[in-house]
Amino acid sequence: MVSRTVRRALAGMAAATLVGSLTLANPAQANPNNNSVRKLTKAVTLQGVLRHLDAFQEIADTNGGNRGSGLPGYDASADYVAGLLEKAGYQVTRQPFDFAFFEEFGSSFSRLAPPPARNYVDGTDYDLMDYSGSGDVTGLVAPVDLNLTPPRASTSGCEASDFTAAVAGKIALLQRGTCPFGTKVANAEAAGAIGAIVMNQGNGDPVANADRYDLFAGTLGAPVGIPAVSVSYSLGEQFANTSGLQVRITADTTSEIRSTENVIAENTTGRTDNVVMAGAHLDSEPDTAGINDNGSGSAALLEIALQMAKAKTNNQVRFAWWGAEEANLIGSTFYVNSLSEEQVADIALYLNFDMIASPNYMFGVYDGDDSAGEGSGPGPAGSAQIEDVFEAFFGSRNLPTNAADFTGRSDYGPFIGVGIPAGGLFTGAEGLKSAADVAKYGGVQGEQYDPCYHEPCDSLDPVGDGGNAALYAQLDGMYDLYGNINTYALDVNADAVATAIMTFAYDTSAVNGVPRSPGKSHGAGKSEDAHGKALL
Predict the structure, then answer these.
(1) How far apart (Å, rounded) are the C-alpha atoms in residues 126 and 129?
(2) Do the beta carbons of residue 393 and residue 364 sit within 8 Å?
(3) DSSP states along 172-234
(4) With contact defined as beta carbons under 8 Å apart, do 262 and 320 qualify?
(5) Exposed, middle or buried by CB within 10 Å (0-12, 13-18, 19+), for 122?
(6) Which of 29, 94, 92 is nearest to 303 (CA)?
(7) Would you state the pLDDT for residue 376?
(8) What gap in Å lies between CA 149 and CA 529, rounded to an integer?
(9) How many CB atoms lie within 10 A of CB 55?
């Protein structure tokens, strides 16, 4: 790896080269008077955000069709973002870190004996686990310390002593429960197993706790040397009760430790002991351009940062583009873990923007106070007041919203974990649009909010990249789509992001009680005005 000094020089050169080749990537010059919500939302335009999405797509097109961390497309994306921010006058840090890289190219799983033979369907009958080893293995299935009697408390595979010599040369059948999947499979490998099947646990009520019975997508957390698949409880139970069961698993994967980075940019004004942070993950899955997930959040955040670069804010604003989010929030977790207690205390709040332009969208606002009473509980103290600012924005435009649960699936998770108030926006992923959603937002009931979520068709040409042509024709007839981007949702959400960042850049008193600094803020808005009073 070249030194940071050299890397920064290369970043500037790369950004200049890319901007030169993409006319649309030339951002408008920031106005020093973009120092209020009204002025910033006027300066941040849909066309300005789309310029960056065009750049991300071109980066993917010239780098194997993706922008995944640990791959050249991500490095080029980071160079593009960092180069523009440095040119705009931000203090830019490239924060490198190592992570467990995984890419799946194909797999199969089949029953060979006893009859009848059967080929299982990927995504329906089995799932290749993240960080599975590569290989083509055939062997007898060896159950390991299974508990098939309700309530089915399981420690299967958690201890080396669970494995007898009979496992060597066979495919271990393991049961979910107690310890991480990676521990179970690593122990199986150490015991001489040539492959592993991890069945769901089967605990709780089959209806109320369907997630403990159904097929699940699991990660091993780090590379292992043997192929590993997951199956439902019912299929695993069937395997356990089949004498002489022989199966074959094939897996074509790359699973190894690689390096990537976060891009962090700070302005040079404002209180450094009351920092307002806003972040979006920059990486895609390794088989897609990631134009909605999360080119949408990254592009909006970048355009907002560029347009407010000359604003002299009361509080320092720190923007972050995270690497390896798709590998389980590695970049944001690395960043938070690198902070001292004092540095954590200096962060007033964190705003997260992940997937803000889903084609079959809804306007999701993270439920800081858990008012919906669903899923996870409320965020840290102050999160409700962040939610209020977003709700006031949508209310000022007479727009509906949905409560988005803090599921821990995006980069707000590590910040919440250390008690930092958090909030943000989300337009939906693999969830299905309901009748109530259609009444609020239009769209297609029963289809995913993003039909190309984690698929190669998350691009500026979704149908050409394998998306459902009929569905996209239907959506395009209802909305103005730009590839896999709903331009209306993106336009509205870019303004919502700008509103929240500018509001808190001048005043966080409603969130953390820190008094507003004296002096002019040119109508930036007060965070305590979020209840009922329009901010625009």
Answers:
(1) 9
(2) no
(3) EEEE--SS-HHHHHHHHHHTT-SEEEEE----S-TTTTGGGTS----B-SS--SS-EEEE-HH
(4) yes
(5) middle
(6) 29
(7) 86
(8) 57
(9) 26
State the Cα–Cα distance between residues 178 and 184, nearest whole angstrom. 10
Q: Considering the chain, what percentage of its residues have pLDDT values greater than 90?
A: 88
For residue 90, what are the contacts with CB-CB under 8 A and spacing of at least 6?
265, 266, 267, 268, 305, 309, 319
What is the sign, positive or negative, of the torsion defined by CA atoms of 448, 450, 455, 459?
A: positive
Q: How many other C-beta atoms lie within 10 A of the C-beta of residue 193?
A: 27
Residue 365 has, within 13 A of its CA and on its CB side, a CA count of: 27
Whole-number Å distance between alpha carbons of 348 and 190: 46
Residue 89 burial (C-beta neighbours within 10 Å; 0-12, 13-18, 19+): middle
Backbone dihedral angles phi then psi of residue 120, each to the nearest 5 degrees: -80, 150
Return the sign of the alpha-carbon dihedral for residues 332, 337, 343, 348.
positive
Structure tokens at 248: 């074959």
Residues 304 and 306: their CA atoms lie apart, in Å, by 5
Mean pLDDT of the chain: 91
Q: Is 528 designated active site?
A: no
Task: Tell me how far apart the alpha carbons of residues 106 and 28 are, in angstroms, rounded to a whole number.
Answer: 44
Do residues 350 and 278 touch, judged by C-beta distance below 8 A?
yes
**pLDDT digit string (tens) for 348-371?**
999 999 999 999 999 999 999 999
In this prediction the pTM is: 0.84
Q: How many CA atoms lie within 13 A of 421 on its CB side?
A: 23
Distances (CA, A) of 233 to 157, 173, 215: 16, 11, 7
Residue 247: beta bridge partners? 111, 139
Cβ(133)–Cβ(223) under 8 Å? yes
Give the active site residue among 325, 326, 387, 455: 325
For residue 510, the number of C-alpha atoms closer than 13 Å in the C-beta half-sphere is: 20
| 189-to-129, 182, 193, 197 alpha-carbon distances in Å | 15, 10, 5, 12
Supply 211's token pair.
Answer: 């997630």
